[in-house]
Amino acid sequence: MSLPTLHDVLTLGESLALITAAENGKLRRGSALELSFGGAESNVAIGVSRLGGNSAWMGRLGRDAIGELILRELRAECVTTYESRDDEVPTALMVKERPFPGQSRLAYYRRGQAGSQLSPAAIDEQAIASAQVLHITGITAGLGEVPTSALHAAIDAAQAAGRTVSFDVNHRSTLWKSGEEAGAVYREIAKRVNLIFAGEDEAELLVGETDVDRQIDALFALGEASIVVIKLGDEGAVAATREGERLRMPATKISVVDTVGAGDAFVAGWLAEHVQGKGLQECLDTAVACGAFACTGLGDWESLPTRDELAWLNAGDADPVMR
């Protein structure tokens, strides 16, 4: 007898403060700053919620004003939160500057902060069992051995409850000593999951192949994944099933404002359809559209689309004036 589900998707990982330069130029010039928050896993949770899904986020925050801001914003986006709080260290921080038009540069202040203290003891197994999909990323693994052990504890809980585990590699080179170290850790996670999302360069990091079709075959060979998706940026994406179905879709043509958050939007779009039992084509259609829409505005999650906004994107050359 299957357990009842409360959430479509539960994401696990670090959310952190985001300080952004308000205008183009070097941060050292003392430009005005704007405060928000970010984090791949909370981005995905918000993305699923905006598409009509019931989503949740689990992670560790400092007992500070930034932690309160993050919780307030997530709840405002109708995301259920399962947070643990740290009394000793603060919520982490990332700083984004725009040194040149159309280009962003990120600096992270996260090692030793609350998110990197996520441990197996903080994993709410009952909450994970209440979700149809557990979604994780390689970012958490990059924060250290203890957060990595928390990921595996979460996978254990999801598997015990018969839930799907989704893994987006989401490699951050600044969190690792080397690509070889990261690849080895990612492979151990990829062996245990049901859905794998990776950029072309990330797939190469895991399996050593440069050809997309060979990457897909090698990722399937790692473990028991039933679906592999390779994100190709402005060239679209390729999705495949273990049974042999394989689809390639070009990217949606848009005027790019900022690409930050596009990969998370892509995953959110895919998962929002996947939990509804949609097939490979429909999942890929929505994922590509969401990734494109996220590039039309600024912010990690602020430009994630609703269903109505996806309809606008797909309308093409409609009258630009809404009457």
Automatic annotation (TrEMBL):
Pfam families: PfkB
Keyword Transferase: yes
An example molecular function term from Gene Ontology annotations: ATP binding
Sequence ranges assigned to domain Carbohydrate kinase PfkB in this UniProt record: 8-306
E.C. numbers: 2.7.1.45
Class in the EC hierarchy, top level: transferase
InterPro entries, sorted: PfkB_Carbo_kinase, PfkB_dom, Ribo/fructo_kinase, Ribokinase-like
Stored SUPFAM superfamilies: Ribokinase-like (SSF53613)
Coiled-coil segments on the chain, per record: none
Tree of life domain: Bacteria
Record keywords: ATP-binding, Kinase, Nucleotide-binding, Transferase
Family: Belongs to the carbohydrate kinase PfkB family.
Name of the protein in its database record: 2-dehydro-3-deoxygluconokinase
